[in-house]
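Inverse folding, one chain.
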């Protein structure tokens, strides 16, 4: 779990520095919280590997035929290489029984919002304020 904590710290540090969201940013995840996630049967943590090295992770929370994704973190040196997109496609192929995919991201991060829109996610209309100048936008994707 310590390696997951380090991965989250590296993957989300830039956003933490930008927004200062100490309470909500995965870069600050505690070992206790990671243990809680690992022990919850509705949670599954997937690791993204490259050359047998963990370079990212994706948390999936099952809710019947729905799944909530997040957080998804990829080490900075492996971002912008199509790995996130490929990982999203692979998880959708593995979980074929899932018909509704849910996630949220930072509304002000246009690059992140565009990434999810390019994968077929659509805004639900729900937006929640996290703090001044930082909101979560909720997205949904339905598959047949």
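Residues assigned per position:
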């Amino acid at each position: 779990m310590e390696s997951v904590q380090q991965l989250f710290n590296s993957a989300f540090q830039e956003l933490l520095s930008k927004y200062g969201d100490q309470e909500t940013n995965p870069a600050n995840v505690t070992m206790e919280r990671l243990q809680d996630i690992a022990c919850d049967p509705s949670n599954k943590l997937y690791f993204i590997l490259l050359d047998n090295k963990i370079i990212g992770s994706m948390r999936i929370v099952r809710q019947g035929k729905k799944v909530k994704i997040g957080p998804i973190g990829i080490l900075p040196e492996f971002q912008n290489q199509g790995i996130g997109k490929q990982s999203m496609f692979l998880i959708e192929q593995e979980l074929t029984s899932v018909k509704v995919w849910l996630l949220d991201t930072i509304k002000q991060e246009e690059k992140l919002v565009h990434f999810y829109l390019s994968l077929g996610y659509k805004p639900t209309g729900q937006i929640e304020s996290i703090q001044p100048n930082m909101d979560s936008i909720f997205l949904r994707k339905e598959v047949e």
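Helices lie at 2-19, 31-39, 83-94, 110-118. The first strand starts at residue 43 and ends at 50.
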